[in-house]
Amino acid sequence: MSAVATGTPTRAAAGITLEHVTRRYGAGPGGRIAVDDLSLEIPAGQVCVLVGPSGCGKTTTLKMINRLIAPTSGRVLIDGVDAASRHLVDLRRSIGYVIQHVGLFPHLTVAENVATVPRLLGWSPARQRERTDELLALVGLDPAVDRDRYPARLSGGERQRVGVARALAADPPVLLMDEPFGAVDPIVRARLQDEFLRLQEGLARTIVFVTHDIDEAIKVGDCIAVLGVGGRLAQFGSPAEILAAPASDFVARFVGADRGLKRLSLRLVGDLDLRAASEVRPLPPMAPMLDRSTSLKDALSMLLDAGVQAGAVVDDAGAVTGLVTIDMIAASLRRSAEGAPDAG
Amino acid sequence: MLADQPLLDLGWIGAHAGDIALRTLQHLGLGAMALAVGFAVAFALAMMAAGRPRLLAPLITGAGVVYTIPSLALFAALVPFTGLSLLTAEIPLVLYTQLVLIRGISAGFAAAPPEVLEAADGLGYTRRQRFLAVELPIAIPLIVAAVRLASVSTIGLVMVVTLIGNNFGGLGLYIKEGIASFFPTKVYVGAALSVSLALASDFALARLERRLAPWAESHRDVQPGASAALAGLDPIGA
Ligand SMILES: Nc1ncnc2c1ncn2[C@@H]1O[C@H](COP(=O)(O)OP(=O)(O)OP(=O)(O)O)[C@@H](O)[C@H]1O
Ligand SMILES: [Mg+2]
Nearest CA to A50 among A174, A231, A193? Predict the structure, then answer.
C-alpha cells in the first residue's frame, strides 16, 4: 500500500498545483460554471485558504483535489503527479478530508469513526486505539468519556471535532478541510484555530482550508485565494498582501473596511522598534501593560480603551522593557502600505 | 352453538400438550420458511432496484397489487396448479411479504445521508466496502422494522393456510376442528397460540435490532409488540 500506511509524522508534505482547472455543471447554455480556469500553486507544508461568498466554488475546488468531482478541463497535480493518474482509493486514503457537513458514520462510535482510514489501511487494533485516543485528546475531547459515544449523542461542535480527528487519523501529507470550525462558538473556534496552528507548526502538512470567514482565513492561512462569483480567482497572495493591496473592489469589499485593523492583527508588538522606557518618564498611571507577543491590533485597542498615548511593554518577569505609542502603530501600518514587506 | 361446551377445557389441553406443541412448531416452521424465502427474494429485488427509481416503482406497485388479492382467493386459485402441496401454502405467504419487505429494504438502502456517503468515498472506501460497511449497517433499523411487520402478518396468514389444507398441520387446524366439533377450547388454544407466536417473534426481532444497531435512536421509541398491533389493523388475513 501507499506510504500513508507508515503514519510517520516526519514524511515530507506534498505540493499541490491546480492547472487551469474548470468545472462546469450541465452542458450548453443552461450549464453553469462552478470553478472557472483556476490555477493555483500551493507549496508543500503550507496552509492555503480558499475564501469567497457562498456558491463561489470552494467545495467544488476541494473535491476536485481528491477526485470526488472530476474537472471538466485542467489538471490537479499532487507532488508533481497528475491526480487523475493515481489509483483512486489510494489517492483518497492519502488525503485527509473534513467535509463541510461533517458526515460522521452514525452507526460507528466516535473511536471507530476516527479510526476509519487506519482500519482501511489495516493497522493493528492496538495501534488504531492508541492513535484514536491521541487524536481525541488533541481536538479537545476526553477519550475515556467520548470514545464509545455515538455521533447522534454529540453536539454539533463535538461532531465537527471528531470529523477533524478522523481526517488526521492516518497522518496524511495532504489535508482538505471544508469549513472545519463552522459549527462551534467563537471561543471554541478560536481555541481550535490556535490548536490547529500549533499542530501545523510541528507537522507542516499541505492544507487546503475552506472558510467564508475572512478573519479565520487571515489567522490560519499562509496564502489566501479569494474566489469570486462564478468561480473565478479574484486574488491569490499572502494575508498581508491581500490586506495591503486588494486587487479589486470585490476583494476590498470582501476583506472589509477594517482591513487596516486586520493588517495590524498580523503584526506583533515585538516586531516594532520599541522606544526605550527611559524616554517617557513617568509612565501615565493608566498605561496598559503589553507583552511582545500582543498583536498590534490588540495593543491599539488597549491604548484607545485606556485613553492614553503609550503603553509599557513588559517581559515575562514583569519588568518594563520599552514603550509602544499609538503613533508608532500607525507608522508601522503606513510603512508596510508603502511597499515594505509586511511580516505575515 | 359452541355454548353447550365449557369455554376452556383444561383437561383436554393437558392431555394434548404434545400435539399442541407439534402444531405450534409446524405453524412457526411454515411462517419462518415463508419469511426466509420472502426476505431473500425481496432483498435481491431491492438490491437490483437500489438507485434505480424506475425499476423500484413498478416493483412496489406490483407487490401492492398482489397484496390486495384476498388470501383465500389466492390459495384457491393455486390449488388447480399445485394441489394441496406445501407450495400452495408457501407461494401466497411469500408473495404477501413482498410489499412490506421490498419497501422497507429499499428505504433502508436509501437511508444513508448523502454527506455520509460522501465521507465514505472521500476517505477511500471502495464501492463494495461502502455498501457492506456503511450502507448496509445504516439500513438495518428499517430492514428489521419491515421484517417485524412481515413476520407478524405472516404468522396470521399461516392461520388461513392451515384452515385450507390438513396436510400442513399448524394452528389453523384447531380453529377448523374446534368449529366443526363444537369444541371452543380448540378455537381458543389455536388463536391464543398464534397471537403469542406473533408477539414472541416481534419481541425477538426487536431484541435482534437492538443488538445489530445499538446506535439507532429510534428503536427506543418502538416497543416490542408495536408491529403486532400495527399488523392487527391489516385486512390481509381476510
Ligand atoms: N452537483 C451539482 N450540480 C449542479 N450544480 C452544482 C452542483 N454542485 C454544486 N453546484 C453549483 O456550483 C456552484 C459552486 O458550489 P460549491 O458547493 O463549490 O460552493 P461553495 O463555495 O462551497 O459554497 P458554500 O460556501 O455555500 O459552501 C454553486 O453555484 C452550486 O449551485
Ligand atoms: Mg461549500
Answer: A231
**Number of domains, chain B:** 1
Closest listed ligand to the CA of A212:
1
Residue B220 burial (C-beta neighbours within 10 Å; 0-12, 13-18, 19+): exposed
- Give B53-76 pLDDT, tens digit per residue: 899 999 999 999 998 998 888 888
What's the rounded Cα separation, in Å, for the pair B107 and B103? 6
**Of residues A63, A103, A150, nearest to B115 (C-beta):** A103
Q: What is the CATH number of the domain that holds B218?
A: 1.10.3720.10
- The answer to whether B119 touches A97, Cβ cutoff 8 Å, is yes
3-state secondary structure A286-313: CCCEECCCCEHHHHHHHHHHHCCCEEEE
Domain-embedded: residue B107:
yes
Contact B124 A89 (CB under 8 A): yes
Ion ligand 2, residue ranges at CB < 5 A: A 59, 100
CA of A108 to the centre of ligand 1 (A): 29
What does the alpha-carbon distance between residue B169 and residue A35 come to, in Å, rounded to a whole number? 70
Sheet holding A47-51, edge to edge: A95-98, A174-178, A206-210, A47-51, A223-228, A232-237
Structural domain for B130, as ranges: 10-231
Helix, strand, or coil (residue B89): helix
Closest alpha carbon within chain A to B125: A89
Asked if residue B71 is part of any domain, the answer here is: yes
In this structure, the residues whose C-beta lies within 6 A of any atom of ligand 1 are: A 25, 34, 54-60, 100, 212
The Cβ of residue B126 has, within 10 Å, a number of other Cβ atoms equal to 14
Task: State whether residue A45 is helix, strand or coil.
Answer: coil
To which residue does cell 475552506 refer? Answer: A210
Question: Is residue B215 within 8 Å of A104, Cβ to Cβ?
Answer: no
Torsional sign, CA B25, B28, B30, B36: negative
Contacts of residue B21, Cβ cutoff 8 Å, sequence gap at least 6? none
CB A76 within 8 A of CB A65: yes
pLDDT for position A229: 87
Please give the ipTM for the structure prediction.
0.82
| Domain-located, residue B236 | no
CA A239 → CA A246, A262, B227, distances in Å? Answer: 10, 9, 61
Q: Let me know if residue B198 belongs to a domain.
A: yes
Q: Give the C-alpha separation, A197 to A274, whole Å.
A: 27
As a whole number of angstroms, the distance between CA B156 and CA B146 comes to 16
Q: CB-based contact (8 Å) between B221 and chain A?
A: no
3-class secondary structure, B11: helix
Asked if B129's CB is within 8 angstroms of A106's CB, the reply is: no
Alpha helices in chain B (DSSP H): 10-15, 17-49, 53-68, 71-82, 86-109, 114-123, 127-130, 136-164, 172-180, 184-212, 226-232
Are A99 and B115 in contact (CB < 8 Å)?
yes
DSSP B133: I
- pLDDT tens-digit profile of B103-148? 999 999 999 999 999 999 999 999 999 999 999 999 999 999 999 9
Residues A67-107 have pLDDT tens digits of: 999 999 999 999 989 999 999 999 999 999 999 989 999 99
